[in-house]
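Need tokens for this chain, all 363 residues.
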Amino acid sequence: MEWGGWEGGKYLIDGFPRSTDNLEAWHKTTNGQVAVRFCLFLDCSESVMEARLLERGKTSGRADDNLESIRKRFQGFRSETMPIVEQFEAQGTLKRIGTEQSAEGVWADARILFGPSVVFVLGGPGSGKGTVCARIAETFGYTHLSAGDLLRAERKRPGSDLGALIENHIKEGKLVPAEITVRLLMQAMEAGGWVGGKYLIDGFPRSVDNLEAWHKTTNGQVAVRFCLFLDCSESVMEARLLERGKTSGRADDNLESIRKRFQGFRSETMPIVEQFEAQGTLKRIGTEQSAEGVWADARILFGPSVVFVLGGPGSGKGTVCARIAETFGYTHLSAGDLLRAERKRPGSDLGALIENHIKEGKL
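Here are the structure tokens for all 363 residues:
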């Protein structure tokens, strides 16, 4: 991944993790620097996979494409890899596709899984969301969507039925109904490129009903990588907003509205921040430090994103991964191909060890 492009990279990792120790080693080595979007499991019966592998063995030249090795590999997959598949399923991060259907049927099912990926960016009014998002977008190829900007643009749009409603809510420091915000966000993502898009959503979700509306409307089609929380004291944010109010022309950049917004943030949004933190999907940056300090902290969060692709031998991992990579801009890394390349590399101390494991159908 470092060779292929670390920052902002997108990788399909095929045939990994195959065991509990694989997954433990992944967590220990990556240390939270790589976001796993989900695990894609290609579901296929052993009888169909066996027939495919025997057919492939007529021309592949692979030492493990024979009946004895194939059945050993199935046994290893059941005992070592299926518990990992079940673990991802229990965590709600498994996507399953049946691969006994036609190639086009498999592709139709795979295609709908690769909608946009999103990072939510939360922080109190004046915490620096717009500034940080602009720099992340420029550096890592994200599209920045500000929930507040979308609402203000809709408020000013001639003929908008929602304009007056949004105007009143913003002036009073109240949250706009969740359905309106989610509708505007979805429209913006569709306009900006749905399939494979990368979006920073700034200032959303601000409340429990925002998050519930998000889940209901997106229906699992959008992958949330994490929530970035910009941590800043109210005294610093208040000073920034009053300064901005001298030139911004915004109706809510006055002391009364600012303090109402702080109150709303504490009561409505902080429980959402705490929820993401409890789930282990919150990344926190202090924004009272210098702009370069904030950026240094932000930059390290945007390493590559990964989709693990698992399935029994002959389930179609290579075929599906190649098409996903071509269509959605992922780099395809096959754990098996990397091992086979190492096995053939002249002078490799690992070659003989890898060779014996593959012949015996072991992981």
